[in-house]
Specification:
single chain, Jelly Rolls, Arc Repressor Mutant, subunit A, 6-stranded antiparallel sheet
Length: about 300
């Protein structure tokens, strides 16, 4: 392949996989790359600092940090006015998530077969007119996590340190998309928290922010200015589950996604979703899915 003819906003393999083109790139700055119909990309725009007045389809949109916007080629806004604006933009083609995906296929296919339907779930906010181009406000924890995810994606592409760099780059994108999908589903909860001012209303957002870290119910209750009994009762009203059951379900959903969509070692997947004991991870995964992590990958991974 002629490297001079490569589409923009992609990472090129060097000493490892020298012919590989990964259609993912991270750009830092104050502007968005212009739309390129020949090489379409979805864009995750992390507004790290400042504010801007945007024009989207002729309508003004005000965005202030910390926030995130999800864009496609048709919803690439123009920046009319900006103040101390700092952006991190992740440009990617959906084939990075699953090889059967293109932007056209996602727009025209109501349902994908098999596990591709689960992967399409990650990209639904890019197909939803409610979320497309509309800023989503970030809690401080998620603001920091998005910044870290952008940095990790960029670092994997720059360093290419071992044979797992393409899968690891893909995995950080998938984890970022997972958090953003949950965030888009949580938009009413953000609005409720802002309207009521009650810290207890933040519990679902906090669990989504910290699902792959170690925390106790008592710690969660202190963060929300409550006690564990009241907090668990409130959480059950929101989700129908206890905090522990809901957190485990989130962890297993993320683990299944990484096993299905990457070839990262199972030990690395385990650590990424918050486990340090292989036996505990395997037992929990089997209880959730009916199979071990290795059996799940053998049956479901589209890369094998």
């Amino acid at each position: 392949m002629d490297r001079n003819a490569l589409p923009p906003l992609a990472v090129i393999g060097r000493s490892i996989y020298p012919d590989l083109v990964m259609p993912i790139a991270v750009a830092e700055g104050e502007v968005l790359a212009p739309a390129d119909p020949a090489h379409p990309r979805y864009v995750i725009v992390h507004v790290r600092q400042g504010s801007a007045l945007l024009s989207l389809h002729g309508q003004p949109v005000l965005v202030s940090a910390p926030a995130v916007l999800l864009l496609d080629e048709s919803s690439r806004p123009a920046i009319i006015r900006a103040t101390r604006l700092a952006l991190s933009c992740v440009y990617f083609h959906p084939c990075v998530v699953n090889s059967v995906f293109s932007i056209e296929a996602l727009q025209s296919t109501p349902w994908f077969d098999g596990t591709a339907s689960q992967d399409a779930w990650l990209l639904q906010p890019f197909l939803d007119a409610i979320h497309m181009g509309q800023p989503l406000t970030l809690l401080p924890a998620l603001h920091a996590q998005l910044a870290a995810a952008c940095a990790r994606i960029a670092a994997e592409g720059d360093e290419q340190r071992d044979g797992n760099w393409p899968c690891r780059m893909r995995s950080w994108l998938i984890e970022l998309l997972f958090r953003l999908r949950v965030l888009s589903d949580d938009a009413p909860a953000h609005a409720s928290t802002a309207a009521t001012g009650h810290r207890l209303d933040q519990v679902l957002l906090l669990v989504h922010d910290r699902y792959n870290t170690s925390f106790t119910l008592d710690e969660l209750a202190r963060w929300c200015g409550s006690n564990r009994t009241t907090l668990n009762q409130h959480f059950r009203k929101l989700t129908g589950q206890s905090v522990r059951a809901y957190t485990i379900a989130l962890r297993m959903q993320m683990a299944a996604t990484l096993l299905r969509d990457t070839l990262l070692p199972v030990s690395e997947v385990m650590e990424r979703v918050g486990y340090d004991n292989p036996s505990n991870f395997t037992r929990t995964f089997r209880q959730t899915t009916g199979v071990t992590p290795r059996q799940y990958r053998t049956a479901e991974c589209w890369m094998q």
